[in-house]
Predict the 3D structure of the following.
Amino acid sequence: MRRPQQKHRWIAHMDLDAFFASCEQLEHPEYRGRPVAVGALPGHRGVVAAASYEARKFGIRSAMPVSEAYRRCPDAVFLRPDMEKYRRASRQVFQILETITPVVEAASIDEAYLDVSGLDKLLGTPGEIGREIKRRIFTGTGLTASVGIGPNRLIAKLGSEYRKPDGLTVITPEQVLDFLAPMPVANLRGLGPQTQKIFGRLGIRTVEQLRTAPLSRLEEHLGKKAAASFHRQAFGFASDEVVPERRRKSISKETTFAADVRDNDVLHDALRGLAADVARTARREGLSGSVVTLKIRFEGFETHTRQYRRDTPTHDERAIFKTAWQLFLGGKLPKKPVRLIGVGISGWEEDQPAVTQADLFDQPLEKEDNQRVLQTIDAVTEKFGKGMLQLGVPRKTDS
Ligand SMILES: [Mg+2]
């Protein structure tokens, strides 16, 4: 009798272990075996962006204030992040992943999804593929990675978190329900502190409890959309799509207002946030652009764009914001309520260190200080998401 053909895909999630700290330990043998905390330096405000496993033994964690980390282990090696170094290592790792399969999607500087379906003839079972991924990364870079492999992205990601560091966890479709059951609901995707509180009030701590809770009750407290999402996840359903990155022509972000905006202060703040998003994406991808584009849509779908080519490419949010704001003020745009505002950069000068135009700033920074500030911001946001840190752009609408 023929068995029904397996229809699912195999998705792998790769997560480099204590990535920033490991890069430093690789470059400096004297740091190996020692607690290393990358981020702000003791005596300064700021947080730890990454801690080596030796540092974690002292309870040092990422997102912890550096003062607290210092209190826990004054002998730790405290280092400023060197994002250029980490990006170089990251690029190397991604090149290695592409020797496994071209279907690689970067999730962050140290995480990737791979579609490893159909590689059995070439590389063997999912377990063998996982070991091969880890082996190639280690021999090529000296870094260790944790890998999870399962039928979709959620299970793969939870798999890579399951055993760390240097872990490998394979979850077959048959194992998915048992694998998920004892997990804290906090491990599911898209669960913020608010939702966590709601689950707490409902007495739902594990995925198993979530699974048995009536959907109508979840909907009542979480809303239809969120309830459906968590319910699906509790049963192990998630996307198995891996989208390899294409070389992009531009990076842009836009926002649509719920109601048309007349207030320049609101537009100023929105544009500032968008510029920060654009700059961060550009820095993550090692891109600097010299063309800044402003997009404005007024009521009635009337859309205008304005562009300005800077003398020097940039990936600095203040420079992008300032240029965009000047385009807004000086672009001879109609004085009408604004429905949508967006900003973008293009005109790449790839992998060139950006020269920031100090004269565009109200308070010019030395180039080196500036790079350091941006790197710290990137190191923190790479790990904890945006909104944690933002550069201060003076709140003025007439500049
Ligand atoms: Mg990692």
In short: Residues 264-284 form the longest helix (21 residues).
